[in-house]
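It would be a great kindness if you could assist me with a short task in structural biology. A protein sequence and the structure tokens that stand for its backbone fold form the material at issue. I should value your view on which stretches of the chain appear to form regular backbone elements. The record follows directly beneath this note.
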Amino acid sequence: MSRIATGICVAVAIAAGGYWLSNSTTSYPMIGSAEAQEADLDTSTIVEMVQGAEDAPVEIIEYASYTCPHCANFHTGAYKQLKKDFIDTGKVKFIYREVYFDRYGLWASMVARCDGPDKFFGISDLIYEGQSEWTKAGGPAEIVDELRKIGRLAGIDNDQLEACLQDGIRAQTLVAWYQENAERDGVQATPSFVVNGKKVENQSYADFKKLIEEELGS
């Protein structure tokens, strides 16, 4: 039986500023800067990543982290069935919201969002499918380089990737957006789901499907 996840990852809030990558010749901020930390952050500029019909009768919000193995299990397994059964058929509007355990998950998010909503879910699939490789690539420099490779595989050129990864204000805004969402919906672990405004616990896909069908009145 497919499961939504085999467990949960406990969410930890992070500050986006102060994450630096260094090598023998250079040191530069990949995410965050003093300017970004001091800036006024407008979280309304963060685009919601949505699949399915806008007027679908059931809305599902998933909170997930790119570095959470249980989220990877969901996205490489039960999510595909959920998409086939409910999202692609216009019954579910699916909203994906990132949770940031660490800088690596934030970097992954910035790559996934780098070329806009049209490529977001496809890049997210690549990130989750390769999670066990890129998260274990080595130190920060090696990990971000693996994320760059995923971005290039998705058709994003190097200059655009660097601009996305070095956008400190964007990083700060993403973290503030995540914190607002998590506080409002009481998110403390991933993956977490909100179905038509109600927080849903981890359960088998069969039970999750039954819950959706109840919301549909079928």
